[in-house]
Structure formats: C-alpha cells, structure tokens
Amino acid sequence: MDFIAGPRTLPEPAPAPMPVKMVIAGGFGVGKTTAVAAVSDVPPLTTEAAITEVAAGVDDISLTPDKTTTTVAMDFGSVMLDPTLKLYLFGTPGQDRFGFMWDDVTEGALGALVVVDSRRLEDCFPAVDYFERRTMPFAVAVNRFAGAVPHPLDAVREALDVESEVPVIEFDARDSESVRDSLIIVLELALARAMAAA
Questions:
Q1: What is the CA radius of gyration of the chain?
Q2: Structural domain that includes position 43
Q3: In a domain, 89, yes or no
Q4: pLDDT tens-digit readout, 149-176
Q5: In a domain, 184, yes or no
Q6: What is the predicted pLDDT for the residue at 27?
Q7: Residue 168: which CATH number?
Q8: Does a structural domain hold residue 4?
Q9: Count of domains in the chain?
Q10: Distances (CA, A) of 14 to 10, 37, 82
Q11: What is the model's pLDDT at position 120?
C-alpha cells in the first residue's frame, strides 16, 4: 500500500528575546569588569590597559594592590535571563578623566547597577550623582571585598544620601548568581517605574 504524506508544517520559530541595555557603573577598582565577566554568557569584551606608574599616582590603588589593569573605554557582555529577555551589559570606566564617555555608554539603557566599595565611598559619589541627575533607575550594589562588607547597608545609604526607593544591596562581583540577582533588582525597579508612569 502506498503511503501519501500530507503537507508538512514546520514548527513556529521561537520569538527572539527582547534586548535590554543595562549599565554597570561605579568608581575605580570597585569590581565592574569583574561583575560583567562573572555573569556574561559570552566572553566579555574589555578595554583594559595596564596601570602605569603615572596612573598609579592618580588612581588610588592602596586598597586594591593586586589590580594591574584598568578599563579605559567600556566593558561589554550579555546574559540571557530567560528565553524572552536578554540583557546587554555595558560597564563604564571608573576614573573621572573618562567621565566624558558616560553619556554615550548609558544612551538607551533601561537602568544601572552602581557598584560600590564601601571602604572608599567617596569614589562612587560621581556615579550616584550621574544617575540621579539623569533620573535613570539604579540600584547601589555594595561589593564584598575579602568576603565581607565592612559597613551596614543602612550606613552606606545614609552616607550616599540616596532616595528611599533606590535599592542598596550587598553582592559579590565574582559570583554570577549574585550579579544576576542584582541586575534583576534593577530590571524590576525599571519596570515598576515604567508601569507607574503609564
């Protein structure tokens, strides 16, 4: 008996995930490049340059003596949160002299994670001020150096003088799940603000 096959239907292709741009910002040596590398699904693109004697005289490396390179343009990576959503991560340079690049790096971003070393809070004031001025949703992520945060989060919030709706959280820039959870907090904050505005 001959078997006549009917027309074959191919399954519908899965929709492409929604692309979302997110910024990871903060002062010099706080863990931005480390965070992007830890969470990225792809090998991250970095623009690291060696710290020269001249730069060491400008940038305070006393609390990060093992740091031998610094970001001079930006870091880039991506992470798929689920099949419908993909975050594109842009890490800013931390030094004030590269601040002129921040407008380009943050253009079109949904929100930002401001990474903080609570041993040198003054280094993150410019990043906090920047996102407050732009009214961009952001969270403050206090990095665990040596496995601990030396100051309570309430004290960090008070020192930074951030609004009550800005999350101040503890995270480990070396741990992918910790970075991922922190980015989700920023994403939820941005979505909540967008819904409130609508």
A1: 20
A2: 18-197
A3: yes
A4: 888 999 999 999 999 999 999 999 999 9
A5: yes
A6: 87
A7: 3.40.50.300
A8: no
A9: 1
A10: 12, 28, 13
A11: 86
For the ranges 7-21, 62-76, 92-106, 149-163, the one whose mean pLDDT is highest? 149-163
51 pLDDT more than 50: no
> What confidence category does residue 5 fall into, taking pLDDT thresholds of 50, 70 and 90?
low
Q: How far apart are CA 51 and CA 132, in angstroms?
A: 30
140-158 burial, b at 16+ Cβ within 10 Å, e below that, comes to bbbbbbeeebeeeeeebbe
What percent of the chain has pLDDT above 70? 79
Instruction: State the residue for tokens 């239907």.
Output: 9
Answer whether 186's CB lies under 8 Å from 165's CB.
Answer: no
Short-list 78, 131, 75, 125, CA closest to 103:
131
8 in a domain, yes or no? no
What is the identity of the amino acid at 73? Answer: A
